């Protein structure tokens, strides 16, 4: 378990939500809170959440349906926390896509043990199968599939040249890259149109990925620099 893992507590009961959040924060997790499905979706869209502690009964949706919908486009970890603690309820939750199912009342020690177990298991799976993935600013760059996915699992519509240029920039994150260096890395030998083509590709990447200079910084007179921190896996 990483102390930097982020947990989202989703429960319409403020007292329960605060109790769970306090326990998780004390254990070293970063904790966010939402009182309904709309708030959950807003937090998930930021790409900052590693695990959701989800109540089954919410004012604008039920946890079973929400988890089913979530699994259609996201692999974020989910632990259902609910008053429905029967064997059939647990089985339905797991079948729907939850990583674990915990009945109320919630006991902090058990809750944290479940959270740690799920996050450790997820980390093991990532280590085994995602060596060719680069993550930055809420995006996941899959080098094998040649796809760039957002937090909801949707692929950005990149051309091969745009993907290749982005890969070069991401691989050299934090370092200024001249237009000439980028041309060479792309395998372009057209000295006249090359620099302009790099500018066009950068402009397209910014439009498709957002962020403007916050993602790819223009270093006037020198070239470009990829700004966000990059992690592998």
From TrEMBL:
InterPro entries: CheY-like_superfamily, OmpR/PhoB-type_DNA-bd, Sig_transdc_resp-reg_C-effctor, Sig_transdc_resp-reg_receiver, WalR-like, WH-like_DNA-bd_sf. Keywords: DNA-binding, Phosphoprotein, Transcription, Transcription regulation, Two-component regulatory system. Residues 131-228 form the OmpR/PhoB-type domain. Signal peptide: none annotated. The keyword DNA-binding applies. PROSITE patterns: OMPR_PHOB, RESPONSE_REGULATORY. This is Signal transduction response regulator, C-terminaltranscriptional regulatory protein. It comes from Magnetospirillum gryphiswaldense (strain DSM 6361 / JCM 21280 / NBRC 15271 / MSR-1).
């Amino acid at each position: 378990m990483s102390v930097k893992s982020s947990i989202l507590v989703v429960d319409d009961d403020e007292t329960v939500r605060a109790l769970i959040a306090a326990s998780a924060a004390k254990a070293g997790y970063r904790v966010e809170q939402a009182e309904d499905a709309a708030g959950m979706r807003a937090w998930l869209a930021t790409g900052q959440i590693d695990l959701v502690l989800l109540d089954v009964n919410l004012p604008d949706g039920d946890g079973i349906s929400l988890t089913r919908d979530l699994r259609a486009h996201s692999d974020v970890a989910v632990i259902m926390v609910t008053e429905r603690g029967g064997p059939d309820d647990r089985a339905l939750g797991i079948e729907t896509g939850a990583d674990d199912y915990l009945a109320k009342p919630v006991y902090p020690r058990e809750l944290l043990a479940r959270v740690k177990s799920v996050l450790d298991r997820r980390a093991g799976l990532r280590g085994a199968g995602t060596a060719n993935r680069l993550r930055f600013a809420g995006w996941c760059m899959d080098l094998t599939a040649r796809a760039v996915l957002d937090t909801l699992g949707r692929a950005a519509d990149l051309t091969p040249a745009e993907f290749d240029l982005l890969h070069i920039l991401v691989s050299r994150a934090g370092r200024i890259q001249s237009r000439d260096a980028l041309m060479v890395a792309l395998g372009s030998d057209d000295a006249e149109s090359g620099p302009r083509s790099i500018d066009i590709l950068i402009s397209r990447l910014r439009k498709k990925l957002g962020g403007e200079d916050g993602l790819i910084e223009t270093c006037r007179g020198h070239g470009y620099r990829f700004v966000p921190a990059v992690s592998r896996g």
